[in-house]
UniProtKB/TrEMBL annotation:
Keywords: Kinase, Membrane, Phosphotransferase system, Sugar transport, Transferase, Transmembrane, Transmembrane helix, Transport
Pfam families the UniProt entry points to: PTS_EIIA_1
Transmembrane parts of this sequence: 12-34, 40-62, 83-107
Statement: the UniProt record of this protein carries the keyword Secreted: no
Protein name: Glucose PTS transporter subunit IIA
Organism whose genome encodes this protein: Lactococcus petauri
Subcellular location, record wording: Cell membrane; Cytoplasm
Any single Gene Ontology cellular-component annotation: plasma membrane
Domain (PTS EIIC type-1) ranges: 1-121
PANTHER family: PTS SYSTEM GLUCOSE-SPECIFIC EIIA COMPONENT
Primary localization: membrane
Length: 277
């Protein structure tokens, strides 16, 4: 509501819908909270308060599913009808508290270019940035990825690689701006401002870090080819999860052209996506 950036508003609305309805929070995390930083504080505080209330109310999950509106029934205890009310209270509390805290804490809005700046930008010579494959394997278009967050480009444009080994390297040179606690996702920003998210596997957040090893941390300066995560592919596959390693440009709206090179197989460090301003 407060942002004047159209791209950010669209991302936030889509992310909020997926988080509330389906319990898929990654678009909100990577597309909004991590980029703006302060909303992340509001999310952490809200999570603590809502979790404490849920704990005191004795709520417990009776199935394995991401907590969302459609899956909230997993917290209902048929022997305790009051859990229905507590589930509703906790969900409403989470939405309202995070909303209020975000308004109170505020955030530094992403800049909106004026029309004259946009015209100057269009007239500038196109700057091409090449993104290289973080691992050797089979190339996939995002539309082929079995996760709508990526296939519908909610987080941005990019590509995926089905890896044939577990060493994942940085696809660009830049600074580490996000390291998910479970190590399955890494955010990197290039010196030219290109924001890239490397997401390893589909729904691998459910593994809670098992099978992922990484020694990098936020603020580290890394180079294209720097190892960022070591993955146990066999463990992921044994859990029934896809190993697709996805690379998306989370600030895609700032770029005008994306060229995915036509390749079926790719080697680590091979150029696979060209991005132009």
């Amino acid at each position: 509501m407060k942002t004047k950036n159209r791209e950010l508003r669209q991302t936030a609305l889509a992310a909020a819908s997926s988080a509330i309805i389906a319990g898929i929070t990654e678009p909100a995390l990577y597309g909004v909270a991590v980029r703006l930083k302060r909303p992340m504080i509001a999310s952490v505080i809200t999570g603590f308060v809502a979790g404490a209330v849920a704990g005191m109310a004795g709520l417990a999950s009776h199935s394995m599913a991401a907590p969302g509106l459609f899956t909230s029934v997993q917290f209902i205890d048929r022997d305790n009808p009051m859990t229905i009310a507590w589930v509703a209270i906790v969900m409403i509390l989470s939405i309202v508290l995070s909303f209020v805290l975000t308004l109170v804490i505020g955030f530094e809005d992403l800049p909106v270019e004026e029309e004259n700046l946009e015209e100057i930008h269009r007239d500038q010579v196109a700057q091409t940035i090449s993104i290289k494959s973080p691992v050797s394997g089979k190339v996939k278009k995002l539309s082929e990825v079995a996760d709508e967050v990526f296939s519908k480009e909610v987080l941005g444009k990019g590509f995926a690689v089905v890896p044939n080994n577990g060493q994942i390297v940085s696809p660009i040179t830049g600074t580490v701006t996000a390291v998910f606690p479970t190590k399955h996702a890494i955010g990197i920003t290039s010196d030219k401002g290109l924001e890239v998210l490397v997401h390893i596997g589909i729904d691998t957040v459910t593994l809670e870090g098992k099978g992922f090893t990484s020694n990098i941390k936020m603020g580290d300066k890394i180079y294209q080819g720097t190892p960022i995560v070591e993955v146990d592919l066999a463990l992921i596959e044994a859990a029934g999860l896809a190993t697709d390693t996805i690379v998306v440009v989370t600030n895609s709206a700032e770029y005008s052209n994306f060229t995915l090179l036509e390749k079926d197989e790719v080697s680590e460090g091979e150029v696979i996506l060209d991005v132009e301003k």
